Amino acid sequence: MEDKDKDLEKRGSFREIVSLLTLTGFVYGPLDERLSIREALEKNLKKPVGEHVNWTFCFGGITFLLFVIQAFTGVLLLMYYQPTTAAAYKSVVHITNNVPFGWLMRGIHHWAANLMTVFVFLHMLRVFFYGAYKAPRDFNWVTGVVLLLLTLGFGFTGYLLPWNQISYWATTVGTEIPSAVPIVGDLIKMLIRGGTDVTQATLTRFFAIHVLILPATIAVFLLAHFLMIRKQGISEPL
Asked: Terminus of the chain with fewer CB atoms < 10 Å: N or C?
């Protein structure tokens, strides 16, 4: 009988060790005792969802998932990309042909960018037709519009980075549009390009905006967007 009790005790100790070595055991073990992680997770994740919620409410979450994919693949591409007019195209070719799984990362980055634009539009259409842009969620709608513009900014600045004929002339045409604005049009065009033509200065500006300014800005607005959703809850249809 004593041997059996000792055997059960050993098994219990072994399970505790295994549980402690796993992520769940670590989170819900000594780490939870110090930081109350279980309570925080249950408070934030166990939130009831109304019966009106359907598959169209997933558009926002899908958009955020695509943004995370963009960030991950973008960091990997950044390790090999060279933002100069002499080396940009060659580095993209190198990524595609020589870097292990580089073609895959570039393809995922490309298609995730297109899908992100599609789903952010679908998300805003759903919000509009459900009337979720009205008070008290009007400010959240404003942050959503800003996030839409930032998404389009990602697409526009990222399009030039391969520095091929298509991206060069598309950027030339795109940056020519502001010049139609009366009085300040030419000034806006020069500020965007960094000069009168699309050159190294343009590539440098677009690269900096794409990998530094836009990610930092979108992170701030995403945080504000999510906090307001958590505070106000999921809207109901009209």
From this structure: N
